[in-house]
Amino acid sequence: MTRRGEFELIASLFAPLSSEASGALSLTDDAALIDVAPGCELVATIDTLIAGVHFRVDDPPDLVARKALRVNLSDLAAKGARPIGVLQAITLSEATDDPYLEAYARGLGEDLRHFGVPLLGGDTTAHRSPAAAGRGGPFTITIAALGEVPRGQAILRRGARPGELVCVSGTIGDAALGLFALEGRLPPVSPEHYDVLVGRYRLPEPRLALGLRLRGVASACVDLSDGLCADIGHICEVSGVRAELQWHALPISPAAQRRLADDPSLKQLVLGGGDDYELAFTLPIAHRSAVQGLAAQTGIPIAIVGRVRESSGHERDGVTVLGENGEPIQVEKSGYTHV
Amino acid sequence: MTRRGEFELIASLFAPLSSEASGALSLTDDAALIDVAPGCELVATIDTLIAGVHFRVDDPPDLVARKALRVNLSDLAAKGARPIGVLQAITLSEATDDPYLEAYARGLGEDLRHFGVPLLGGDTTAHRSPAAAGRGGPFTITIAALGEVPRGQAILRRGARPGELVCVSGTIGDAALGLFALEGRLPPVSPEHYDVLVGRYRLPEPRLALGLRLRGVASACVDLSDGLCADIGHICEVSGVRAELQWHALPISPAAQRRLADDPSLKQLVLGGGDDYELAFTLPIAHRSAVQGLAAQTGIPIAIVGRVRESSGHERDGVTVLGENGEPIQVEKSGYTHV
Fold it and tell me: Do B155 and B280 touch, CB atoms closer than 8 A?
């Protein structure tokens, strides 16, 4: 295997991605310097993606990089924050040879430019080769994303109140169906539908523009990483409420609708599967009329999918999904847990 | 193996470590909110530690946590920054059962309190079990540390100028000798010396108080993680200078002196070994008289170990170490590279 040394790797592949930000110090220092705009709070989040767990070992490396960045930007979007930069810690494996890393850095650079976000710093480590004394291990990416939001305006998970509307951006279930398709666990899918679903799994779209516009409008917000019911369940838990969703109101893409027509049990993937990275948020009734405007301004469809209800008093009463006749649909997999 | 689920792990072990910081949102949200003091810049750094690479799999888990925190705080110290919080992403392995993680969290909590730094957020993931479809992998800790420094006052690596003094805090070589002792690669060592050396390897001391006082005094600073010559070499490279150190001026602990008396070839560990996490900095001659005061105020010995010289024009001419008769000592291992 050909592989650059640590310093050469940083200088050749990653330092160019920091060139827009003087505070990144060309990645030649121990730390980065970052200006947070006056009157703003810093918003910080960190997420790890592991080959074979959070992405497939045969996923194209440029898309792996872009996904790792995007899932972190998605966390900032859910807070209504504007991204200001990212730190990246990667641990190389036997599989990450020079061509892999070049493609990875190319994808990362492409997306950093697309979102106007600089690489501020990082760390590059490597697993011991299994052939040597070590145990080896998979390629792992940890990104810490930093953003800013005017003080007091971040949208938290804890603000949902009974009576409010529950809304979801885009369409849901596509990413989980895409993973199933990649794994050969779906009946034959037309090429265009296959591309749509797999594309949604491999390259989520962080809803940054929508997040910014939800400030002062949404009472709580979360990005859908663990699954629709699990993530809205997180809002419920910390807000002390429960949520009632209508199955027929959920936004389902044509590609996903076709899969559901073939196999209704795939409903469970729509409700429990993760990785869509859409925003789910709660909205005071008074802001109901804002929904159409938000969708028009951002070009992202927004669906009203249910209501926030008073807690029943049961611990973790969470999210109920009602079918067409008002009967609750059992959700088998209540979200993805990473441990 | 008994192991808590992701959410239970966070709620029981890590959320208590965030209780001092309201912006950590009890670790129940997607991101943390952080206030940077007016007039200050944010300083951000990230470092990964891998079991079997950066710490030994049999190192006590509470010390592993404390070391992971401290190496990141050390990066902030080198910039003259005050820490304001950390984000932690851990990837669990087969070996990190409940008792391991409880000890880990206990150590982390102890040190966060000690340094007055809150845990602001994190991510908990797990390697696939090798018994399942996955490949497994070692316990991995990535910490992103955030600090603040009055705007324009951060001490960078790039400020060293010819004629300046090169200084080092504490003593050097102990950590590398400690690792050798743990690995059984040293001749018999007295119990007290063994404890000193191993302690320095397992539990470095981030020189935060010294870093704060070096603002406006030091022209460049780095923490010694890769090795004395390698890290001072980083200053040289980005400052466009070289450095000449005097072997006899290097601060060596009694425990290390004893090892060197037994085996002079261990000199190489002092010059090339890493993990001491002392600060090396350059000082304009005009500030020479400040050295004693800095040492007295912080209680940390400071040694003047050499001079900054004009670049010879050779690429990467870096660091020369001169022996007692002025002859250059060959440095075999020019620092630890993590790839």
Answer: no
Higher-confidence position of A171 and A131:
A171
Burial class (CB in 10 A: 0-12, 13-18, 19+), A91: buried
B positions 244-283 inside 8 Å of A (CB): none
Do residues A32 and A24 touch, judged by C-beta distance below 8 A? yes
Return mean pLDDT, chain B.
92
Q: What is the pLDDT of residue A120?
A: 94
Give the pLDDT mean for A156-172. 97
At B167, the amino acid letter reads: C
Which residue matches tokens 């001092």?
A: B20
Name the one residue in this structure whose structure tokens are 């390698």: B230
Percent of chain A with pLDDT over 70: 94
Q: What values do phi and psi take at A315, rounded to 5?
A: -65, 135
Token pair of B258, please?
């004893």
According to the model, what pLDDT value does residue B291 have? 95
At residue B73, what is the residue type?
L
Q: What is the amino acid identity at position A139?
A: F
Q: Among all chains, which residue has been given the structure tokens 């050396």?
A: B197
Chain B touched by A75 (CB under 8 Å):
yes
Point out which residues pair with A121 in neighbouring strands: A87
What is the interface size between A and B, counted as CB pairs within 8 Å?
242
| Cβ contacts of A163 within 8 Å, gap of 6 or more | A285, A307, A308
Query: Is B45 in CB contact (< 8 Å) with chain A?
Result: yes
What's the pLDDT at A30? Answer: 83
Token pair for A115:
């979102």
* pLDDT tens-digit readout, A101-153: 999 999 999 999 999 999 999 999 999 866 555 568 999 999 999 999 999 99
> Tell me: the pLDDT tens digits for A306-322?
999 999 877 666 899 99
pLDDT for A7 equals 76
Strand partners, B48: B142
Residues 6+ apart with CB under 8 A from A191: none
C-alpha distances in Å from residue A50, one per residue of A90, A113, A272: 10, 24, 21
Beta bridge partners of A183: none
Task: Tell me the nearest-neighbour CA distance from B229 into chain A, angstroms.
Answer: 15
**CA distances, A76 to each of A58, A155, A265, B31, B297 (Å):** 28, 10, 33, 7, 42
The token pair at A220 is 């709580």
Distance CA B186, CA B168 (A): 25
Q: State the nearest Cα–Cα gap between A194 and chain B, in angstroms.
A: 24
CA distance A224 to B184: 50
Binned at pLDDT 50, 70 and 90, residue B132 comes out as: low
Determine how β-strand B302-310 pairs with β-strand B241-246: antiparallel
Residues whose CB falls within 8 Å of the CB of residue A26, separated by 6 or more in sequence, listed in order? A15, A18, A19, B238
Q: Is some CB atom of chain B closer than 8 A to the CB atom of A32?
A: yes
Q: What is the pLDDT of residue A9?
A: 83
Query: Which one of A30, A36, A54, A208 makes the best mutation probe of the B interface by having the most chain B beta carbons within 10 Å?
Result: A30
Nearest by CB to B5, from A48, A121, A339: name it.
A339
DSSP of B229-240, one letter per residue? Answer: HHHHHHHHHHHT
**Residue of chain A whose Cα is closest to the Cα of B236:** A28
CB contact under 8 A, A46 and B137: no
